[in-house]
Amino acid sequence: MVPNKRIVYVDILRILSIVAVIILHYTAEVLTSTNDFNSSSWWISNGFNSISRFAVPVFFMISGAMILRTQITTYREFYVKRVLPLLIPLLTWSLIYGLYNQYYIMRSRMNAYEFVVDFGYRLLTDRNYVHLWFLYAIIAIYMTVPLISKFIKSCSEKDLRYYLLLWFIVSIAYRFISDTVFRATDQYINIPIMNIPFFMGFLGYFILGYYLFHYELPLKLKNILYNLGIVSFFLTPVATYFVSLRSGVLDEMFYGNYSMTTFFMAVGLFVFFKEKEATISDQVNHKIQKLISSVSRASFSIYLIHLLVEMMLSGRTEVEATFLEASLSLIVNISIIFAISYITVKVLNLSKTATYILFGGRG
């Protein structure tokens, strides 16, 4: 790999994922505000929300692919370069969203002392704003990286396949079976042997990203993953409709980050764009590659700011909207949120101080 060379398919995956995150948050309002599962607005929101579910797993996979290949010299250097730039925006944006929510949305009359106490509690317990949970999760994983990276680099490909297979069984397959049994019988199954902490949670996606980045899969397996990914994109909205219809309210069984369909969508996309890296690099001109790189570098900052932009500037899709109205509303508002978020980030990046305080030096 040429030093400092941008990895185009990783940049594209970041851009697709941040757009998907914006779609997830924008469509959530319609999905949670009506139980009319046959309305056009619900179906449009369900469709776009369903096919965007790959976003969070892909973000974790990209993080694992990028950071686990780096050389870690000392714990102190790693924390200063990697963890601190996440802690700073967590504090900053928790404060921004906390102030906005308390004094603009809720019209609170808290005095300064009451706000500081409330803010401190919410900061510790991840209750300041809905999307900031990602920072808590990624910081927690980053804290393990100095040890995990040593474990990963000492593993053979066969060792990593074993880990990923066991993680898939525990975190994806077992959860899917448990959810299915619960919806059929109203009883959760509990198999104690499946409680293996190291093989649970987002760490699996983190290591999966490293594995897919560094190792080449057999052609037959790639084709299987492509096909399962395509099937999952079509299956998720339909399956969500039927389980929600049965429950009477939105059922997020197929929306979860560990759902079977979300897993195959994320893996299928990652493998597909990795395979197309050479083709994309050859066919996309330098100016477009620079734009892709610019948007990709801003994706973390866009993630932090986009909900504020959405609350302040975007319109809403009416529950009674027709199919065409709901589609246009979604496309226009997502485009507005994305464009304004990106432009705002780039303007703020003109100041190194603002970039550091707001985005941990990223941009």
From TrEMBL:
GO terms for biological process: enterobacterial common antigen biosynthetic process. One of its GO terms (cellular component) is plasma membrane. It comes from the Bacteria. Residues 8-341 form the Acyltransferase domain. Keywords: Acyltransferase, Cell membrane, Membrane, Transferase, Transmembrane, Transmembrane helix. Its main location: membrane. It is found in: Cell membrane. It holds the Pfam family Acyl_transf_3. Belongs to the acyltransferase 3 family. PANTHER family: O-ACETYLTRANSFERASE WECH (PTHR40074). This is Acyltransferase. The lineage of its organism: Bacteria, Bacillati, Bacillota, Bacilli, Bacillales.
